[in-house]
Amino acid sequence: MTTPAAATHVDPRVPAREVCVVRYLIDRWAAERGEQVYAVFDGGVTFTYAQLRERVVAAAVGLQAQGVRRGHHVLAWQPNTPDMLFTFFAINYLGAVYVPINTAYRGGLLEHVIDNSDAEVAVVHTDLVPRLAGANLARLQRLVVTGTGSGAAVPADCPLPWVAFETLDGTVTDLLPLERPIEPWDTQSVIYTSGTTGPSKGVLSSYLHMYTNPGPEAWPCITGEDRFLVNMPMFHIGGLGLSFAMLARGGSMVMPQAFSTDRFWTLVRETEATAVFLLGVMATFLLKAPPTPADRDHRVTKAYIVPLAEGAAEFHRRFGPDVYTIFNMTEISSPITSEPNPQVSGTCGRARAGVDVRLVDDNDCEVPDGTVGEMILRTDRPWGMNHGYHKNPEATARAWRNGWFHTGDAFRRDANGNYFFVDRMKDAIRRRGENISSFEVEVEVVAFPAVREAAVIAVPSELGEDEVMAVVAPAPGHEIDPAALLAFLRDRLAYFMIPRYLRVLPELPKTPTAKVLKAELRAQGITPDTWDREQAGISIRRDRIGS
Q1: Which residue in 92, 126, 132, 130 sits closest to 114, CA to CA?
Q2: Cα(517)–Cα(524) distance, rounded to whole angstroms?
């Protein structure tokens, strides 16, 4: 077992290495809780902390044999499997930098990330190897291929020398010594943003940033006694951060390969999960499924739903767990958090301790309560947020101008300190002089019983500015009547927010992290299958009191 040298820093805001650095956390829990389960995967596969350390060390020695050293960037391009988890921890165990790639990437976007990463070694699932054929692989020299243990073949035209992940082996005595301890401020990962509107940016995260993101200050109700069901991929902060959070707490986690509405509560019961993370759309899917006598037959007591949808109170009543919400993104560290079962409709919560939050105009001047402004942030903990975008100083400077991180998100705050997400600054719609939040319209559209999911976008108006278009998918067993939906919205939205156009799809296009590809929908625009309420003879006008 390796032991970190005594810490030299005395800042009380910076925890000790064995509290927030992967290598020392794995060693610590293997010694203190070796027989406790850390991870549960599909099919009931489990790993204790002792087994985790054994697998991680073996993989670290194998990566070391491929030339990986402290500070090297190593790509990880894999689905949620045990090998993905071992890869993550093995890279960090060496003091190298974990660089996960979205499994949807291909073509130019994949080439961009490979080039930007500076990686020479990549750990790649065998099913993804064909996408590398003919691509510009930049500095990549070697592959470690996962998913070959069941006899799956690596393509014959694999463009680089490779070894099978399953053959990586070794013990702690085979590891080269660290020239110095791994520090909390060392770079732990480069996480690429979704890239739905342009080239992905690599967010530089320290161990301290990753610890703070879902840390005890931001998520105080989650403890080492919890088993957290993580419904997000490991290349997303939702998967990576929560895996790290449960390691830091000495708790356990459940990691399915993907979210499934039909299998969700069965999985919760089988794995004895006590806490879950759900995107708002996932919670909506669960609520729109038919009730069953087993709705409360589980051990979940805490559910994080992001964003907090209108049905959150019903989720608590129907399924039982206390509901929490937050505002977060890859670059920051959960600055806005809620109490259990927030009573204020639509809130993201309030600013947590240790973070400064401002809402500002285009010149970084503070706006009054009730006025929409861009959220900008800073933390009092050193290295408590990102330290820039890898090899992108221009984007780093733009984001961190005036010493505050600019989120690009429009918010408003009420007099009681509650924050309300309005929209991504780039997604706002302007119709005939009125600014419209696509998010606020989506919340009301999804409240219609026949709608399973919705995306609201701007499309060009023949009068200038924008028209509002809603792209929706039906709930199981329902058909969507456009006129009935508009009648439903008439009592819930201002007249100028009610969509003119409605398009029905079986399912909305999404990234693997369940973000709707609005850029794709905007590019498609008004398609032949789009319903136009004006052509249907439905006119919605301002009434005498302006609503």
Answers
A1: 132
A2: 11
For helices 438-446 and 482-490, the axis angle rounded to 10 degrees is: 110
Q: Which residues pair with 374 in a beta bridge?
A: 360, 410
CA distance 465 to 329: 30
Q: Which residue has tokens 């943003």?
A: 193
Strands 466-474 and 451-460: antiparallel
CA dihedral sign of residues 387, 389, 394, 395: negative
**Residue ranges of the chain with pLDDT lower than 50?**
3, 5-6, 195-197, 543-547
In 10 A of CB 487, how many CB atoms?
Answer: 12
Q: Give the chain's length.
A: 547
3-state SS of the chain: helix, strand, coil percent to 5? 30, 25, 50
Q: What is the pLDDT of residues 305-327, one digit of tens each?
A: 998 877 889 999 999 999 999 99
Q: Are 326 and 306 in contact (CB under 8 A)?
A: yes
Q: C-alpha dihedral over 293, 296, 299, 303, to 10 degrees?
A: 140
Q: What is the DSSP letter of 159?
A: S
The Cβ-side half-sphere exposure at 175, using a 13 Å CA radius, reads: 21
Q: What is the DSSP letter of 290?
A: P
Q: Following DSSP, what letter does each residue of 200-223 receive, concatenated?
A: --EEEEEHHHHHHTTSTTT-TT--
Distance CA 444, CA 425 (A): 20
Phi, psi dihedrals of residue 384, rounded to the nearest 5°: -80, -5
Q: Is the peptide bond before 476 cis (omega within 30 degrees of 0)?
A: no
Residue with tokens 């054994």: 54
Dist CA 179 CA 172 (whole Å): 16
Interatomic CA distance for residues 77 and 410, integer angstroms: 33
DSSP letter (8 states) at residue 404: S
Of 180, 177, 206, the closest CA to residue 191 belongs to 206
Tell me which H or E stretch contains 238: helix 237-249
pLDDT of residue 149: 76
Rounded to the nearest integer, the mean pLDDT of the chain is 91
